[in-house]
Amino acid sequence: MTVSRRSFLATVGAGSAGILALPLIEWRGYEALHAQGTASRRADRLLAAQPGMTRIDSNENPNGPGEHVFAAIRNHLGESNRYPVRSEDDLIKVIADKHGVKPENVILGCGSGELLRSAVHGFTAKDRGLLVPEPTFEAPANFATFLGVPVVGKKVDASLHADLDALIDAARDSRPGLVYLCNPNNPTATVHGHADVVSFIDRVNSRSPQSTILVDEAYHEYVDDTSYATVIPVAIANPRVVVTRTFSKVFGMAGLRVGYAIGQPETLAKMSPWLLGSNVSQLSLIAAAATVNDAKHIELEQKRNRETRALTVRFFREAGYKVPDVQANFMMVDIHRDVKAFKAECIKHKVAIGRQFTALPTHARVSIGTSAEMKKALAVFKTTLA
Ligand SMILES: Cc1ncc(COP(=O)(O)O)c(C=O)c1O
């Protein structure tokens, strides 16, 4: 329920703390919802979830989780009466082993979204803001704005890569508490090579020694560019670096809500207080542990994505649109028209694409669906763009 300014003031006028409390909380809730962009985001997702809709809007894996996930959930459903303490340790151990780090270098999140939020809480303040490329995944900036933390954005360059030099200058000038680098970047699907990211981190460290750099590797498994590599080893060596990963993308578990962060224990300790205890469900923990090393499933999903992505890139290029180098399970294309209107038109044909990003209002973000879904979507794009 929303509360108008007038009814809020009338309630204040009533002078009763009891009467005041409820609308105040509701008004805050309303503000919060809008400050974080969650209201429009939810509306967008509900639209995409309509029956019969081809959902290429949220960078999900259209094929779902691997068979180990189904088996794990079926076999462990009966343990749902217990709080998941042991399973948390089990998953942390499997993740740590996979990356060659210690369990104390890993914390879990209810999706990596919770970890991004905890990083904003833990590393920023009203006088130590957040620095981000623009556009990028908006959750950290939305949350910082909600907290009253200043956000500095630096627009991507002409090739849709984060402008690393501009970010370094901004770090020197604004001394942010947190620098968020999404690599590959959502929504542009562009990637920076390992050497560039390491040099970026070094230069931010020297220009603004108190800033923590969070590298979000949500789409790590979809990168083909051989110059790219994870910066997890850097996060283990450098107290000013954290890496986040998620089970929501290549693992096909967005609905199960599991993510993790890797860094030095003292660095992670700044984030942990902001996480809910037992933030990942028992079944999700067991499912994630069952799939994290399922190389066969990961390879299959990479292959499927690569093939369908190539088909989609070809379509746009043959139609005369410029597609930047795509290194994820989505792409961004300048369609030379307002994306909101294009999206609305596609919805009429039961195809839901990504939301409009303010910094690039004519660039459509298209997630890669199954090949059947993409054939349908491309036919709709063909008529809609004609
Ligand atoms: C770059 C990036 N990071 C984090 C997230 C959050 O994902 P989750 O909370 O499902 O792990 C997303 C979701 O799309 C994303 O694109």
What small molecules accompany the polymer chains? pyridoxal-5'-phosphate
Task: Tell me the helix content.
Answer: 40-55%
Walk across the major sheet and give the strand order: 2-8-7-6-5-3-4
**Which regions have little confidence, pLDDT < 50, spanning 5+ residues?**
1-36
Number of helices: 15
Secondary-structure element order, N to C: HHHEHHEHEHEHEHEHEEHHHEHEEH
Fill in the CATH topology of the largest domain. Answer: Aspartate Aminotransferase, domain 2
Q: What is the CATH top level name of the largest domain?
A: Alpha Beta
- Terminal CA distance reads 42 Å
How many domains would you count in the coordinates?
A: 3
Q: Report the portion of residues in β strands.
A: 5-15%
Which CATH architecture of the largest domain?
A: 3-Layer(aba) Sandwich
**What kind of sheet is the major sheet?**
7 strands, mixed
Structural class: alpha/beta
CATH-level-4 superfamily name of the largest domain: Type I PLP-dependent aspartate aminotransferase-like (Major domain)
The average pLDDT value, as a whole number, equals 91
Q: Which of globular, elongated, flat, extended, rod-shaped describes the shape?
A: globular
